[in-house]
Specification:
Blueprint lengths: L24 H22 L3 H24 L5 H24 L5 H22 L9 H19 L12 H37 L1
Length: 207
């Protein structure tokens, strides 16, 4: 009596390592986001067209979500992508807050707080590099970026006003919420960085 035969499915080889790739779809989108920033800033401060400035800035802001999704879903998360994507976010936020301040749509204190926060976080990231550590993005940090980009986009469009408060734009409300989240995220990153350094030091002592 012959034994029943089974048909084996195709063998799956090891997944390709894309961590050192450069020109992936996600990275190309990130570079395109970077190229949009100076165009959006120039149109904004030139007062040529709020609508065009909004379209350029909103396109750069919205693709922040797109490139991350593509990288994760296609398994093409790269080292260069993890490095330049947060940098593009910082440049996009900086161009928005500086441009809106120049156009007198944001108070100076918002500019000072956000720029100081980014300088502080960049300094912290540089310090972590000495320990071969990289700060993971927290949900507070992600919400901070999303809320600020949304607020800046609405302020660039110069619309709409909050019905309850005459003359107050909805984008400004978003920005104030984003500033509060920004400070909270900076505090959270500080404690997280200290915890990471302490754990690494403890691990080295036990090794």
């Amino acid at each position: 009596m012959s034994e029943p035969t089974t048909t084996a499915g195709p063998e799956r080889g090891p997944q390709s390592d894309h961590s050192h790739d450069v020109w992936t779809v996600a990275n190309i989108i990130t570079v395109l986001r970077l190229l949009l920033i100076p165009f959006a800033f120039t149109v904004l401060v030139s007062d040529r067209s709020n609508e065009l400035a909004f379209l350029l800035y909103a396109a750069a802001a919205s693709t922040d979500w797109l490139d991350g999704q593509i990288a994760r879903r296609t398994g093409t998360v790269t080292e260069i992508g993890k490095a330049i994507d947060p940098l593009v976010d910082r440049l996009l936020l900086a161009s928005g807050v500086v441009g809106l301040y120049i156009e007198s749509r944001l108070p100076m204190w918002v500019l000072i707080v956000l720029v100081s926060r980014d300088v502080y976080l960049l300094y912290g990231a540089w310090r972590l590099e000495r320990y071969d550590l990289r700060m993971p993005v927290t949900w507070t940090g992600k919400w901070t970026t999303a809320v600020l980009l949304g607020g800046f986009s609405l302020l660039i469009l110069h619309w709409p006003e909050v019905p309850v408060f005459e003359g107050v734009q909805l984008g400004l409300v978003f920005v104030y919420v984003g500033v509060a989240l920004s400070v909270s995220a900076a505090i959270q990153y500080t404690f997280l960085a200290r915890s990471m350094v302490r754990k690494q030091g403890a691990g080295q002592r036990l090794a």
